[in-house]
Design goal:
28% helix; BirA Bifunctional Protein, domain 2; alpha+beta; YbaK protein; 3 domains; 20 helices; homodimer; nine-stranded mixed β-sheet; six-stranded mixed β-sheet; 34 strands; Rossmann fold
């Protein structure tokens, strides 16, 4: 059947002298992260411009192997590959407003006729345009397509080599559905992609964590990040070892925390003059209060979000949400949004001042006597007793007056009338409380106290999680911090893009339906860098077999020696028969140079062919991971030993 | 050994309903060429912007198959794959002056910091920069690298779908050498690339011609084009069927043609007033002379090229070269350059006028009495007898006076003293005549007459070849015109790029040597289009097996029928075992629609599974190339039949 159709795959054999591996003693001056340093020194990459790298032959082989595994798992998940253009008419991004949302991150190209184009950073708009023209019946859905493509983002400050560059290789997949649930729905494909990602990263031999994530500017209702675990990673994630729950800091839920506003005051409220102090730390130092004993208070503008809220007191919805967390915690806007059940944004400073908020000096007491304020308190801030010490405590807080703070703030005393206000509709509120809060309201203690709260005060998880916080999934467990590098991110997009371009189809009942989308990104070049961050030592890279550019390096001590050449030909030929890729170091260099380079490029196995071992019918066998010297292995057993290591 | 290392390859099986094949009855309004029309209608491509196409799943599979064959042959030829950036700092192109040479063809991108970049149309500068930094010893050469990459050219008027677009996929290879000849030299790699290209296009199943070509703006000393033969091709090539010689029009040599200035005049020279006539055709019509009987005369500026020419008459080199061809022929600047043995350019009109040339009305007689003119006459213009009719002839020519031409021009009479001038150094000239002319000077007749020519007249092949011209390689044969589509172009670059960036290395003798380069381009996306131009009928594409997105299409008459599904599963599974890729048309459409689409997408074999045939244990088997109805083939023999067709 000629060579048109091949059914077998031999490993590849390449001589070092016939490829380009410019190893170097020194890394570029701007290289700081291990992957940037090692990929540069090992001759994998070369910088052509700021954030623009050439993938030299070794890197390219690794990227092709990553791509191939991605391709196989995408196909297994029912997706079809295609390729969209890199240069895209700006009009497509204008339809969704992403020309502005991306702003300067978008490379812009004006062609000779003056027409503006963007270099695609991601292709939701283009694929939606294609589908809008290609799909005219519900029968053609669901459908998932993907591409493996060079993408462009004009980063302000590219850095860390392949980790944050301006031109990079990404797999992006897009799925189209008529429903969210059920057969053919978004959730089914989302789960299939999730599973495909897990298989990809497992097959690549990476240590990774799947993380609940925020959707960010891509939009959508749910998303997961896939993070390669590496100490040097720029992303912080929180993990519960008992339940396997993991989330990034922005998304991470926090387990139930007991809270109470009831408790004795430790002293009289004291106003302190704190002029020109910018940070919680400055004020704390001046007032001799730890940040953990201060109430950080931020004013949000809820607009119309609370207008129709039945849980809110007579007089209609509040516009202002005053969020209170401990001084050593950070307010999480998404959680604030979830807690009030609608959109919310940090208040415009000017507008807030006009409404009577002493921005910079706001404290919880601002809610007293104001019908237009909803007070939202994090459980850790809703305390009147120091639970660790079992005794009464006090807070420092803003005095609601420019340049002033207060000491000895006590919730019960300072909120006074607000906490005592009538509570005739408590049961209704309990049902209507949104999301996470509602669940915690069912726990004993919390619900009892919550039911006692007046309408204009709520206690809810509204801060970023930290290491040591209680796990939201396993009672008694705490969250542990871990660092990682994001290599995949999948999203339930919903109708954001299809509605923007007006892409709908008629369903079985001739009703026009918005098409529901998912999108699924995987950083191919980033995965190579993440792998190096995860797996290296002081001598160089340590590649997992699946990502290694070649599986075995054969080092010839005397490249010109016929006996060594013959042994090399035999061993490399037998390895190739097994599908194993072989690089032969045939350079006329000192052994020390070759061994150093071998460790640097990090292939899983090094075989050394030298006179002494050869006289015994053996070669030196050394897995890259193993310490110390190699082991002499008879030539006729060495292929099996290599296969063992590579199959691990 | 886990799935990290695979030694077998199964064919792929895909259902039509799970991929995107938006076939259409109508092609886009701007589609005129067969490949544009058929690739659009068959759902292979979709236009996203002017000259920007998405490769939908079927096209992408074909492109991957082409790429894979290119990859295998490049590796077999000793080249290593890498990938360079698409966005390239403009400074790199400035070093070689190609930022200006490309001009508006270069897409330019200004980044957020205002730095200018180009979108790479080809990567000579980038790879030279990489090698300059990576190579520091002659021991590291020779080396050949390649990439398969999306390239960008801002064509003024993109057209013909994938044939002339602004974003396209190309394989570009670059080789680096210390010598031209001998082991490791440029010629060795050039020949290896030439052979690899032949194998690639043979394996792809294309009908193609290798053509001697001009290097054009890429530069260099030799080049060959690989053209897919197709009537609709935009390139015209000339072929000698006896010798196998083929060349493009610009490069094609022309066989020996007898010539003579001697011959009787047919009448007195007559001056004709020809004001405001722009073209040879206009003037000819007005003067009642066919273009073939007119002497088209063009003035070139040789600068210093002829300064040291020993063949030139006393008084030093001439600056002006007056080139004369028949009115129905075109002067070929490269041939003019070869004939004088140095650089030459069409004269600047203003300068030429200042030097006394009546531009637009120049005739050969301008050389009489001017020491600064070399008269260069094409053999077909150096005639005084109509050889076909065997009788005397006359010419029309420019009168060397504005708005005037002459009739009854006769070489012997009009050149008078110039032809009779002394000839003491004729033997020296014969040796020194450059290139092609020198070879022809050895032929009987030609040389005798040439030796008689005075120093300031030369007869040489200086025009573009046409169909019907004598073959330069086989006496008595003529050139035939053929149309083709350029899919490959290889160049001996020499030191143009390495010298521009100052890339040299020390050789064995510690002497600094310029590095010598070759470059080798292959249009991957263009090859797909060329294949369709070459191979289609009125119903659709007819794919060679190697380029077909899938090898076999199985059409299910009743996709929901369990018996048909079972037969399909069996046949497709067996085909996949043989490495054969299968597309299953499982759509609920009328058989007519499915059969039309099958012809349109053009897979090599269609199998139809229907109740009637199945009752006899058979399926309908129909190669795309065969006319008429399919043939019933027993299920257990159908895989072998498919393999037969695909192996042809």
């Amino acid at each position: 059947m000629s060579d048109t159709i091949a059914t077998t795959r031999r490993g590849e054999i390449k001589k070092w002298s016939q490829t380009l591996i410019p190893t170097a003693r020194e890394a570029p001056a701007d290289a700081e992260t291990p992957s940037h340093i090692l990929l540069s020194r090992a001759g994998f990459i070369r910088r052509t411009g700021a954030g623009m790298y050439s993938y030299l032959p070794l890197a390219w082989r690794s990227l092709m192997k990553i791509s191939q595994i991605v391709r196989e798992e995408m196909e297994a998940a029912g997706a079809s590959e295609l390729l969209m253009p890199a240069v895209i008419p700006i009009e497509l991004y204008k339809v969704t407003g992403r020309d502005e949302a991306y702003g300067e991150l978008l490379f812009r190209v004006h062609d000779r006729h003056g027409r503006e184009n963007a270099l695609g950073p991601t292709h939701e708009e283009v694929i939606t345009d294609i589908f809008q023209h290609a799909i005219n019946s519900y029968k053609q859905l669901p459908l998932t397509v993907y591409q493996i493509q060079t993408k462009f983002r004009d980063e302000f400050r590219p850095r860390a080599g392949l980790l944050r560059c301006r031109e990079f290789i990404m797999k992006d997949a897009y799925s189209f559905h008529l429903t969210v649930d059920g057969p053919g729905g978004l959730n089914e494909t989302y789960d299939a992609q999730y599973a495909a990602y897990v298989r990809v990263f497992e097959r690549l031999g990476l240590d990774f964590t799947v993380v609940d994530a925020e959707s960010g500017p891509i939009g959508g209702s749910a998303s997961h990040e896939f993070m390669v675990n590496a100490e040097s990673g720029e992303d912080k994630i929180l993990v519960c070892d008992s339940s396997g729950y993991a989330a990034n800091v922005e998304k991470c839920e926090i387990g139930e925390r007991a809270w109470s506003f009831e408790g004795e005051a430790l002293g009289d409220l004291a106003k302190v003059h704190t002029p020109g102090m910018a940070s919680i730390e400055d004020i704390g130092r001046f007032m001799k209060v730890k940040p953990a004993n201060m109430l950080k208070t931020m004013v949000f503008d809820a607009g119309e979000s609370l207008a129709d809220e039945p849980s809110v007191a007579p007089g209609g919805g509040q516009r202002w949400v005053v969020a209170v967390v401990r001084g050593n915690h950070d307010v999480n806007e998404s959680k604030v949004r979830d807690a009030i059940g609608g959109p919310v944004a940090l208040a415009d400073e000017k507008e807030a001042r006009a409404a009577g908020f002493a921005i910079g000096y706001v404290g919880p007491a601002v809610a007293v006597g104001r019908d237009d304020v909803l007070l939202l308190v994090d459980p850790d801030a809703a305390q009147s007793t120091d639970s660790a010490k079992g005794k009464a405590m006090f807070w420092a807080a803003g005095a609601n007056e420019a340049d002033h703070h207060v000491k000895f703030f006590n919730w019960q005393r300072e909120l006074g009338g607000l906490l005592d206000s009538s509570d005739q509709d408590a049961s209704a509120r309990r049902v209507d409380l949104p999301g996470a809060s509602a669940r915690r309201a069912d726990l004993p203690g919390a619900s009892a106290r919550r039911a006692d709260l007046p309408a204009r005060i709520r206690v809810a998880d509204i801060r970023n999680a930290n290491a040591g916080d209680p796990s939201p999934r396993a009672e008694g467990s705490i969250l542990r911090e871990q660092r990682g590098i994001e290599v995949g991110h999948i999203f339930k997009l919903g109708c954001k893009y299809s509605d923007a371009v007006g892409f709908g189809v008629l369903d079985q009942d001739q009703q026009r339906q918005s098409v529901i989308m998912g999108c699924y990104g995987l950083g191919v070049s980033r995965t190579l860098a993440a792998c190096v961050e995860m797996s290296h030592d002081e001598n160089g890279i340590i590649f997992p077999a699946a990502i290694a550019p070649y599986h075995v390096l054969i080092t010839l001590m005397k490249p010109d020696d016929p006996a060594q050449q013959e042994a090399c030909a035999r061993v490399s030929g037998e390895l190739a028969e097994q599908g194993i890729d072989v690089l032969i170091d045939d350079r006329e260099e000192r052994p020390g140079v070759k061994f150093k380079d071998a460790d640097l490029i990090g292939l899983p196995v090094r075989l050394t062919i030298g006179d002494k071992a050869l006289a015994e019918g053996a070669v030196e066998f050394k897995p890259r991971r193993s310490a110390g010297k190699g082991e002499l292995v008879p030539i006729d057993r060495v292929v099996a030993r290599c296969a063992d290591v590579l199959g691990d």
